[in-house]
Specification:
Blueprint: H1 26-59, H2 65-95, H3 101-131, E1 139-140, H4 151-172, H5 174-184, H6 198-213, E2 216-217, H7 224-237, H8 257-263, H9 281-285, H10 311-316
Parallel strand pairs: 1-2
Helix pairs in contact: 1-2, 1-7, 2-3, 3-6, 4-5
């Protein structure tokens, strides 16, 4: 972690930890997550249908194809945010006995919506600009033959590798840490409070999304479920609901919300640990793993870091002197 960021362990982590002390049985976990994935996939398919309808309706008004595509993509981004936060938020909010909804979710939804809007605009502009060069992807899905069966697994492993090192760079390079600190200042994390700064999202677009587009053409039909997994993982990793944590043995392969809370922990011994957002074994491979020894959530945030003060502050904070 950036040396300027001072962490300190906060006493007490709330009633959620009392319910989290006993590991969950593997069977119950598998049933819970199977139902969760089915629900998420159904919700996102519904969002995709709305996206198509919005794009077509706007295009029929006589606007350009690019503008209609942007409107459709923005519709998808915002509705996916609202739908997935609602899905996870219901479980979290139930745990909190359905109180303080506005306090827990409103601010996060505002910042996340702003970030998604800017990221979607940047992505649309980037692809319109790149399209004029008519660059052909390195690989085509139809040319992979039997290897296409392995593509989903390879896709996950490659994305996980690049995400791990980009995440480490966000912590180790002072300029990038100014962007990432916006995310780490969040206290009492939940599905809505999983937002990052919009400039960090733009960095992910440039380093991961764009290169993948030019790596392989038309693999969509083979990675629909994986797309769902990666989309919901960001919301899931920041939930503070013990009912959704993994059985301990599974954390040696996959990261869960308890594992990720250690990455956000205020405690100094957890600095620079648990960068993985999907596969936990990259942390083990590169010496940055702290495997949870209990089923509690750690207190999160950055001591001495001024909390965000509205949407204007969210937009410009990393670029100001106080950063």
């Amino acid at each position: 972690m950036n040396s300027a960021a001072k962490f300190g362990e906060r006493e007490g982590v709330g009633c959620r930890n009392e319910a989290a002390r006993k590991p969950r049985p593997l069977g119950l976990f598998l049933i819970t997550f199977a139902l969760l994935l089915v629900a998420a996939e159904g919700v996102l398919r519904g969002v995709a249908r709305v996206q198509d309808a919005v794009g077509l309706a706007i295009f029929n008004l006589g606007v350009s194809f690019e503008a209609a595509s942007f409107a459709a993509a923005l519709t998808n981004a915002i509705l996916s945010l609202l739908a997935l936060v609602a899905l996870f938020g219901f479980l979290e909010w139930r745990q909190m006995k359905f109180v303080n909804f506005r306090e827990r979710y409103a601010e996060g939804l505002i910042y996340a919506s702003i970030g998604l809007s800017i990221a979607t605009l940047l992505q649309a502009v980037a692809f319109v600009w790149l399209h004029q060069f008519e660059i052909e992807p390195v690989l085509r899905a139809d040319d992979l033959g039997p290897l296409l069966v392995l593509f989903p697994i390879l896709y996950m492993i490659v994305i996980g590798f690049f995400e791990y090192w980009l995440h480490r760079a966000l912590h180790d390079i002072p300029l990038l840490w100014r962007l990432h600190a916006i995310h780490h200042q969040i206290e009492e994390m939940n599905a809505a409070r999983s937002y990052s700064h919009w400039a960090q999202d733009a960095l992910y677009l440039a380093v991961i999304t764009v290169p993948l587009v030019f790596l392989i053409k038309s693999p969509q039909q083979h990675i629909v479920l994986l797309t769902t997994l990666y989309l919901i993982s960001n919301y899931y990793m920041h939930t503070d609901n013990p009912a959704m944590s993994f059985p301990p043995a599974l954390r040696h392969v996959l990261a869960d919300n308890i594992y990720h809370h250690y990455h956000h922990s205020r405690a100094i011994e957890h600095w620079g640990r648990n960068y993985c957002s999907f596969f936990s074994f990259y942390d083990r491979m590169f010496g940055t793993q702290h495997m949870p020894t209990d089923e509690t959530f750690r207190a999160t945030g950055i001591d001495g870091y001024r909390p965000l003060n509205g949407w204007r502050d969210y937009l410009v904070r990393p670029f100001t002197r106080k950063g």
